[in-house]
Design a protein that fits this description.
There is one protein chain. By secondary structure, the protein is of the alpha/beta class. It contains 34 helices and 26 strands. The strands form six sheets. The protein has an eight-stranded mixed β-sheet with strand order 4-3-5-2-6-7-1-8, sandwiched between helices. Helix 28 crosses helix 33. The radius of gyration is 33 Å and the shape is globular. The two termini are 48 Å apart. 40% of the residues are buried.
């Protein structure tokens, strides 16, 4: 290459190389056997110049190189570098990478339950650990020069995102911040905020994938390109991306209506030949099975592949389907190597536990090169899958979307079965950002020339919509920052109340809110101009039409109010009728999904009320919620919405004491008896009485005033009324916009004020002084920080043994994946049950207090109700019961069980640190509980 240069150009290149060797970047580049990309060089130069950097680049593009350069600079300058990640698995991975490069003496690891060489100059940690160090004023912060925040786009996370902003705001000014993010569409806005709170920050955005991505759709036996050949495939060039016309034709053909005998063509029935041709065309369109997909990818040379399935059970089923289909992706040598690696990695797990964990079925899949990867798996098993996949010994992985979050498992191909996933509340289309994140795994840098994203054909698929997903780069970073109780006492303790309020106003959340106000203000100005025009349009020569329009609105509002009152009275009558129900009553559910005949199992009365028979129902805030068995054998807890009219018992039946709502046989037998007993009954029709509006004096008065008003006789009255209605709507919208402006200014600070007021009421704060109770709260991190503190304060956990304490602490961390209305969770008996009940009562008191202080859980602030669903499982485990018994009782995958146990351990450690020392058994038993939970499958689930 240099031979083509002139002597002057060669001399200039030599000068540039010599100048670079004099910098830290030159020796750093020589540590890698590949050249750095331009954006990496730009970011490294900015860092060496003393600037902070925000690097936004696609998954797999090597942005961590910039973080590693910060590590290099820190070691060269004799300073410290903290490398933070959002999840423990990533921390473990980065720890291993840095140890290989710099040696174990220079690199440490700190996660919630692990500490390795914590005093090293380079420490890898989860972001929460750094946040806690900042609030505690840890000595480890001395000499800190650089902080790398990997996956900083996590600050959008609804549950944990606030931690990233807390760290960014509270890091000492002398620390240089390196923020590494996925490609986001508002990187410049985020960079502007970093510039405001951290000083000079360079924003470097790269949208160029290191390995080009080709998009496909697999329908039947054919793999279609999503885009036409001459267009821009996955960002390779700059041409327009046109959807493949073959795919468009395929979708149109599938969407055409099938043969209808009533249709006629030219007066005759559709010819048999036409129908046969159509049938043959349709037979080419189907969704391939999972084994067929893997087989096809193998034949095309597109393995290894990750298939994203948005269900854990479906991931496991996919592996079994491939095994039953006889798929084998490894030869005998690789099978032997897989078995050796797996046996070595699982040597510490007792044989009886291996059987419980489904080890042998899992191993058979691994030997054939096929595996699942999801959060329900044992962490050790997941890590083995990751290692084998990276080494090319597992070639097909079926994974949930959690794998897309930073774990280093690049593949040649990524397969998406569907473009819809369950988001916790409903089935929703995946977003362009999620699509980009998932398909970003395709294409291994330095191995593959190109990556491939394959979407399976589904009935009703719109190729245009898929092309929009694949081509959109809209992934905005939105702050999820909200003050918490723990944050409030820590801030006041460190900075005082006034300074704390100012600090919160520097958050990215407030920065975004303030920027959005500018556009709203412009809209208000435009609306005010429009109001003037509307006012002219409704001017009437006979009188004040604005006054006349107000009378019309008042009349309409009064009629609406009376209609609502009637509906409210009907609901009250329905609720009163529900309170009279008793177990064994047969009713007709009037409406809703479970309308029809039903047998009352439990009236579901609100707490503290009985139905006169001494039965006390479960706690609900919206009236009775009866638990019923429907004639279709379903056990469901109904709500007031299912009873718009009063309900009465039409029959009575005895509910057997042996009835088990979880047993299909029990439900079938009792439902059969219900149909036999009351299947012939017909529900009464509820008749409505005379409308309240007919006799209302206010309505009569308004109608009289309307008729007497001068404008009532205007020939253009309805024309004026239309302008008046537009005026009213625009005026109402303008006032709402003005309230939004008012509400968005200082929103975070106002929430902080409400939290401080509540903490003052509970004697955690006195002005800018943090009380003894407040100092205890400062050591408790988590969603239910205030509840934990109140339990310690009230001595709720005094006298509990370690297993009982672990059961109580589990209620602070556990959240069921899906609510189970049918039965209450099983609880340990004795003191633990009493303590759990007291925790729920304390939460009820805090919930009422939050309502008084206008602290809204819907806005991400406040204490959710403790979930008792894990208490029995962790109690059994801490009591020394075997794994198979605990998992059977918990009805929970091993991975979930381990994860919840580790969270319990984390909070037990906080409780031990925060509990009062004198005359208290809580701290001592919390430490014992940690030892009793951290055993067996929980202890040997690797570092993380």
């Amino acid at each position: 290459m240099t031979e083509d240069l002139s002597p002057a150009e060669r001399y200039q290149a030599f000068r540039l190389r010599a100048a670079e060797q004099a910098t830290a970047l030159g020796p750093f580049r020589e540590m890698y056997d590949f050249g750095l990309d331009p954006y990496q060089i730009e970011a490294c130069k900015a860092l060496e110049a003393g600037k902070g950097v925000l690097v936004a680049a696609p998954t797999g593009s090597g942005k961590t190189i910039v973080g590693e350069f910060a590590v290099h600079l820190a070691l060269e300058q004799g300073r410290k570098c903290f490398y933070t990640t959002p999840i423990k698995a990533l921390s473990n991975q980065k720890f291993a990478d840095l140890v290989r490069r710099y040696g174990s003496d220079k690199v440490g690891l700190l996660t919630g339950d692990n500490s390795v060489n914590a005093d090293a100059p380079v420490v890898v940690m989860t972001t929460e650990v750094l946040r806690n160090m900042l609030y505690a004023g840890s000595q480890a912060l001395n000499g800190l020069g650089y902080v790398v925040m990997d996956e900083v786009h996590y600050l959008s996370d609804r549950f944990r995102g606030a931690v990233w902003e807390e760290v960014i705001i509270h890091l000492p000014p002398s620390v240089t911040l390196v923020s590494l993010s996925a490609t986001v569409s508002n990187a410049e806005e985020f960079g502007d905020w970093l510039d405001t709170v951290r000083g000079d920050t360079e924003v470097i955005v790269s949208e160029q994938r290191p390995v080009p991505l080709w998009q496909h759709v697999l329908a039947g036996r054919r793999m279609y390109d999503l885009f036409e050949e001459e267009s821009d495939h996955g960002g390779r060039g700059t041409g327009r991306r046109e959807v493949n016309p073959d795919l468009v034709r395929l979708a149109r053909m599938e969407n055409q209506r099938g043969y209808n005998p009533r249709e006629r063509r030219r007066g005759k029935m559709v010819r048999e030949a036409d129908r046969e041709r159509e049938r043959r065309q349709r037979s080419r369109i189907w969704t391939p099975s999972r084994p067929e997909v893997i087989d096809r990818l193998d034949a095309e040379g597109l393995l290894p592949a990750i298939t994203f399935i948005f269900s854990r059970a479906a991931c496991e089923a996919a592996v079994q389907q491939c095994l039953h289909a006889g798929l084998r992706l490894n030869d005998d040598d690789k099978r032997r190597l897989v078995r050796e690696i797996v046996e070595e990695r699982t040597a510490s797990i007792p044989p009886e536990d291996l059987h419980v964990l489904g080890y042998y079925e899992w191993l058979e899949g691994l030997e054939r090169g096929i595996a699942a990867h999801h959060a329900g798996m044992l962490p050790r098993f997941k890590e083995i899958v990751e290692e084998l996949f990276v080494r090319g010994l597992v070639k097909a992985v079926f994974a949930t979307e959690t794998l897309a979050l930073g774990i280093n498992m690049p593949a040649r191909s990524v397969v998406l079965e569907k473009l819809v996933k369950w988001n916790g509340e409903q089935h929703a289309d995946i977003t362009p950002g999620e699509y980009t994140q998932l398909t970003g795994r395709a294409g291994r840098r330095g191995i593959d020339v190109e990556g491939h994203a394959v979407v399976l054909w589904q009935r009703g698929m719109d190729p245009g919509a898929l092309a929009g997903l694949a081509g959109t780069r809209t992934y905005p970073l939105r702050s999820s920052f909200r003050p918490s109780y723990n944050m409030a006492v820590n801030l006041v303790q460190q900075f005082g109340r006034h300074r704390s309020r100012e600090l919160l106003e520097t958050s990215f959340a407030q920065f975004q809110a303030d920027r959005s106000v500018v556009g709203i203000s412009r809209q208000v100005q435009r609306n005010e101009e429009g109001l003037e025009g509307y006012r002219e349009g409704m001017t009437c020569h006979l009188g004040d039409f604005e006054e006349y329009a107000r009378l019309r609105r008042d009349l309409k509002d009064r009629e609406t109010e009376l209609a609502k009152q009637g509906a409210s009275q009907r609901r009250a009558a329905a609720a009163a009728s529900l309170e009279k129900l008793k177990p064994g009553d047969v009713i007709h559910v009037p409406t809703g999904k479970f309308a029809g005949l039903a047998l009352v199992l439990d009236p579901g009365l609100p707490a503290g009320r009985t139905n006169g028979h001494g039965h006390r129902g479960m706690e609900y805030h919206d009236g009775p919620r009866p638990l019923v068995l429907t004639a279709e054998r379903q056990v469901k807890r109904l709500a007031s919405i299912d009873f718009p009219v009063p309900v009465e018992a039409v029959e009575r039946m005895r509910v057997p004491k042996s009835f088990n709502p979880r047993s299909p046989q029990s439900r079938r037998d009792l439902a059969s008896a219900l149909r036999s007993k009351a299947g012939h009954t017909v529900p009464d029709r509820h008749r409505r009485g005379r409308a309240p509006a007919a006799d209302d004096r206010e309505i009569a008065r308004l109608r009289s005033e309307l008729r007497a008003h001068p404008c009532h006789g205007c020939d253009e009255r309805e024309d004026h009324a239309r302008w008046a209605e537009r005026f009213h709507r625009l005026q109402r919208d303008t006032r709402q916009l003005e309230r939004r402006i008012e509400g968005r200014t200082n929103t975070i600070a106002r929430t902080f004020d409400r939290i401080v007021a509540l903490l003052t009421e509970l004697d955690y704060l006195r002005g800018s002084e943090v009380t003894e109770h407040g100092r205890r709260l400062a050591r408790l991190y988590g969603e239910l920080d205030l509840l934990a503190s109140e339990c310690l304060r009230a001595g709720v956990w005094e006298g509990l043994n370690p297993a009982e304490l672990a059961a109580c602490v589990s209620a602070l961390v556990y959240e069921a994946r899906q609510a189970d209305d049918a039965v209450a969770p099983k609880l340990p008996s004795g003191p633990a049950k009493t303590a759990l009940g007291e925790m729920v009562r304390i939460w009820g008191r805090l919930d009422a207090l939050e309502e008084d202080f206008k602290i809204n859980q819907a806005e991400g602030v406040g204490q959710r109700e403790p979930d008792l669903g894990f208490a029995w499982a962790v109690y059994m485990w801490a009591s020394g019961r075997p794994l198979d018994e605990v998992l059977r009782e918990a009805d929970m995958p091993a991975g979930d069980f381990v994860r919840w146990c580790k969270q319990v351990i984390d909070v037990l450690g906080q409780v031990a640190a925060a509990a009062p020392r004198e005359d208290s058994s809580v701290a001592r038993n919390a430490r014992k509980a940690v030892d009793e939970v951290l055993r067996g499958v929980v202890a040997y689930s690797s570092l993380g």
